Model the fold of this input.
Amino acid sequence: MFQHRRLNSEITFFQKIRDLDYILLISILLLSSISLFVMYSTDGGEILYHTKSHFIKLVVFFLMMLIIAFMNIKLWHISAYLFYFIIILLLIWVSYFGISVSGSQRWLNLYLIALQPSELMKIAIILCLAKYYHRLKTEDVNKFTTLLLPIVTIIIPMILVLSQPDLGTSILIALSGLAVLWLGGVKIKYFFYSFFSFLISLPFIISFLKPYQKLRILTFLDPDRDPLGAGYQIIQSKIAIGSGGFYGKGFLKGTQSYLDFLPEKHTDFIFTLFSEEFGFIGSILLLLIYIIIILRIIKIGMFTRSTFAKLFCFGFAFAIFVYISVNLSMVLGLLPIVGSPLPIMSYGGSSMLATMIGFGIVMSAKIHHNQNIA
Amino acid sequence: MIRGSSSIRKSDIINRRMFIVGAAKIVVFTILISRLFSLQINDNKKYLTLSDKNRIREWKLPPTRGNIVDYFGNIIAGNLKVYQLHVIPEQVENFNYLISRLQKILKLSNKKVEKIKKKKQQLKPWESLIVSENLTWSEFLKINNYLYELVGVKPIMTISRNYPFDDIYTHVLGYVSQPNEEDILNNEIIKERFVPGIKVGKLGLEKTLENDLIGSNDIQRYEVNAYGKRINQLEYQKGKQGTKVRLTLDTEIQKLCADLLKGKAGSISVMDIYTGEIIAMYSSPSYNPNLFLFGISQDDWQLIRNNPLKPLINKTLSGLYSPGSTIKPIVALSALENNVVDPDFTVNCKGKIELYEQTFHCWKEKGHGVVNLKEAMKQSCDSYFYEIARKLGVDRLKITADKFGLGKKVVGDYFENEKSGQFPNTSWKLNNLGKGWVLGETLITGIGQGYTQTTPIQLCLMTAQIANGGYKIKPKILTDDNQLTSEQIREVIKNNNSTNSYKSLFKDPRNIKIVKQAMFSSTNEVRGTSYKSRIDDPKYQFAGKTGTAQVKRISKRERELDLETSQIPYKDRDHALYVAFGPYKNPDYALSIIVEHGGSGSSNAAPMATKLFKLIIDRHDLRKENIKLKNQLPNVST
Done:
């Protein structure tokens, strides 16, 4: 499958189909079907709103992913900055005209879908910085001026998302961006410097946090502080996962979820429900699928010729890894609750849209691996 | 080419850095997997328990109380099916409309409706609201007819305490009602088993035997959701009914007591003279304990509370009376025991004696003439007893009275409200009234007036202990299957005087015999005070002593007037008393009768004994056959 073609040669449609990455495709399909079953369980063992909606989104976005896969990766290189700017504009738009849900203004009402631009920014920032470092000479990477621009690129969307307020997504955007910086060759000492300055400025940052965000951090440090209030989610999530045991309670038999002890079971805590019903063994299998996806993306990244595609693939693989680990750490009580979905599994269109676009670009990178990008 | 090599170098950097990140990923995933392992494998048990604690909630239901039965196994405090009306507020669409419908169907008062609405505020919407605790059968049927339009209404069948003999046993059993805070705080078991709707003993044996009677709760286990709503029932664990308690009382005799004292204030107690078993214990008037089960109505309560005959007082145990002449057997016995007099000692009764310028009257104004002990007892000559009391002294008299149980609680283990009364002596007066004893007080103590205060049950015990030949017995109200029967105890007493566990209360058995004979003549010989009430048939023949206790000092003017009882205001009339045992030849039972403000003992108390002994002795064989209940009745009655 991984056979190099001649540089910049025309690829036929048949070749494109042949060169699709089927391992990635099958893994995504597998994950999608698992997510449908889990969504069916959150609906209490019936095909209700969440299951239907999730199914429709999966079908639409999956097809979109295939279309993206067949498009030349060059197009993404060309439009990367534009894409980034559009999302920035959307983020500004959201802060003025967005829909507010439980005190957080994150969504744009697009009639068909409530779009969350911050989710798309997770992809846009990788595309944008990948293009930046693709064009930058290796010698120039660690110059002050060339370093400043990507940092600003990261900070602007961070601030916009943070003000929604949405700490979780903001952190995920930052981590995705920093990953590309790292891959682009920024010296390790700069990461250390910025890490230490972050630590020093932490007290100031905390003073700017919203009360509910402070509460979440305190609750993370001691969930039993307020077991019926802020600590409730963490405690109930741990109970659900822990009581699942090795084999789990069985499909549709997760008492914690169907008796409504689990909060946010459709979205951020979807893994908790899965883990309660399918146990340790199910959780490991699910993780395995994610690991296969990540490894596959890395493999494709290594196979592609252009720096842009490489940076995108590695950056995206890292982003997927970060999404998964932040989400799991959260539901396992290892991190404070910051609100981050589990890719594909969680209910929510924007997150799925962003992830599917990412997969699409990765697949396109494989099909067009020999594409020379100026 | 330069560009190419730069690009290769660039991808080298990217690949290398990718692998460094990869290593970090492995570390993170390892941490996540070990966390999963620790939660799901290591701590699985802990979290499974927590998850069950989340989802399973127990609902305790009121326990079923143990039955209380009489000697023959008849249920005197049982359990009855009652029909109740519950409403589950969350299932009701329009609560106010429903309540007004129910008000029409059940004819509830506006006040009651207000109460129900108030109660609803305190409940969670899925908890059942008790609209009516006790529906009649016809109301229950009516509700069932309308049920299709009354969504959220649940007619329920449950079990409640029931006293089939209404007021016959009230002072023995007490009654049950909803516990108040004090009841719950003072009893750990009630605290543990408390549920709304539970009834606990408020008085009498229902209270003292609470921990045996209460039983354990039925438990329903439900799966509930995060909001506490019941999803489905997992288990129904039946509780244990409280222990059955069998009393020594005989319902037939109890009924007769109630009948005899109808409309009067007073008390009758009957006791087995060997086992100490209380056969009957009735305080009149009584009240219906069933009224208290679902909260007594204000009207009923006022009726009971304001009754001048004081139904709330258990006169048998907490009514304090001067024993009057019923004390004379003890005075005579004490004098004989202390060798102050012998049976042939005589006194010439002139109707009164003078002492230190004070006149002490005999009840018979003209006097009895020369009387010996037997004659004095028979005719209840006060002058004679003044004289022997004077010779005896109050201190020696008290020792005998104490031995026979006067001034001490008799069944205080079972009845919180029993009073001890008192029998005075010189030091008692000094300690309690701070004054020295006066000889005149000895004289009136000798005829059962003055400071002496006794309860009817004490007089009964005293008589029983004289009747059994002077042996100490322990009165009881609960049956004990391991105890000796009266026959066996009688044999033990007869055969062996020194080593048996029955403590003799005399120095010389002949003295007891003399007193018993004197009591016999009082009832069975001409001019005896209770001669009119005698039964000649030896099977029923009994011996007794009348008493007439003054409730106020008789003034000189009143003595001259010599009024009939009916002419004296009720409050000032004498109490009529009678103590007796029978059958005389081989006694089995003793009794005491008190009629408050009844007038003279001989005409108002003694005649009751005639009817009582007829019934008591007729039932004696039946009682012997039922020493152990042959065919144990099932504990649950419905």
Observations:
- The beta strands of chain A are 99-101, 104-109, 114-115.
- Chain A has a mean pLDDT of 89.
- Chain A has 14 helices and three strands.
